[in-house]
Amino acid sequence: MSAQPSTSDISFVNRTHSLCDTRSPCAGDRRRRELEVVRSGLDAMTVATDFYQLAEHEILWDDVTEHLDEAEFLFELWEAALDAPNYTLAEVAAGPERRLLAHIDGLQVGGPAVAERLLFPTVENPGSYYGKVVAAALACQHPERVLKVLVGAADEEQRRGIIKALELSDDASLNARVVQVLDSSRGGVGCAALLEVLARRRAPVGSWVGHLLGGDDPGAALAAARLVRYCSDRQVLEGLAPLAQSDDAGLRFAAVETALIRQVPGAWESAVYWAFIPVESPFRRDAMVWVALLGDAAAQQHLLGLVDSPEHRADALWALGFSGRVSAVDRCIELLGDDEIAPLAAEVVCAIAGLSTEDDRFWRAPPPPDGEGQTLPRLQDDDLNRDLIPTAEAGLQIPEPEPTARWWQERRPGFEPSLRYIGGRALTGRVLVDALWRAPMRRRHNLALELGLRTGGTVMVGTRALSGPQQAQLAELAELEAIDFQRGMTLR
């Protein structure tokens, strides 16, 4: 007896025909034959192999082009949502990501005709916009051809788009293909781009990556410094030390962070140095987060002192939200009356103590959007180059100081000052994993970083991946209770 077709199988056939010109005399017969095959028990992708070779004259090209334009727009929304304070993983999956993937699906069902006429030319065109390259490369089902374009791509936006698409690809064989192409590459930006793909895909690598750390190509060295966090060879990891002294701030940052993750001796001292150096630090904000995640109470108290510095206040508040300390909440309660930094201070209270962002008692009504009630500017007066997607901080809520202070006063006796907390719960492995499911998207990257730091790089959650792989990875995480998330390192 044949298996019953799924709704998604029949929907797949229907979506293909949404791209097909129904004026074609064969269109009706084609759809009837395809549905008969699906109903006989074959899945939609099997049917696609036999039937979905649509000729160009059968495709509604305006609809296909609209799929690509919408996918570009939704990719930009999806990427912005990854750093938003008002999205969770489930909300991203059900919102912009679901819509994005629907349009990618709409491009794929067009088959080779759409790939050859629209997708590959978009990927291969150095003038294509980043988001459009990502969408087109995601919809392409020929990774070898996309990799070939990447190796020769001289345009930075084109290269970034291809790298991002390959990062998001669910092709299980892609890592091996990238390594194969890397073996035959001749260095330069192509080599660096391939290494970046492997790093973003969190691909385990062997000792072969070590020689790239000390090479003459700074781009390849930077990508290799990120990639070796997925290498367990201690001799290779020792090659990070010279890079941590590099004049290139980006290379120095990557080397120190990788060394921290892999628990290389001296990495913690470097983190402390860049967090608290009195002169300008190129990555002080990140270094302060490292101290918040790994430092003991005294180290985190030192962070608290930077809140009094106007120059460092915003970055210190961001870092303190990951410290988990009661003392950080106490200090932030005092700052809720300062309109300039109140949203950042309230974010710390939510992150550590568990103040609800859904309870209207604690939050002011949001101000009207900029320009509401105003007429549109004249075209010649409008800034067409401005970023229309708001910053992550712009999405933070404005707290009501007095109700929030009373709430904390009532609950503070239940918190032990010597412990670290997330969302009002003492920090353990289980609590951290739960936070990765439920925390605001913009906070998840550093929560995942702590998981990597505490496990020596053995558990690295890709918080910029699509939600499906993330959810699968979180569901498979082993019990982490044996890891001590309360232990901290001293400033020395």
From TrEMBL:
InterPro entries: ARM-like, ARM-type_fold, CHP02270. This is HEAT repeat protein. It comes from Enhygromyxa salina.
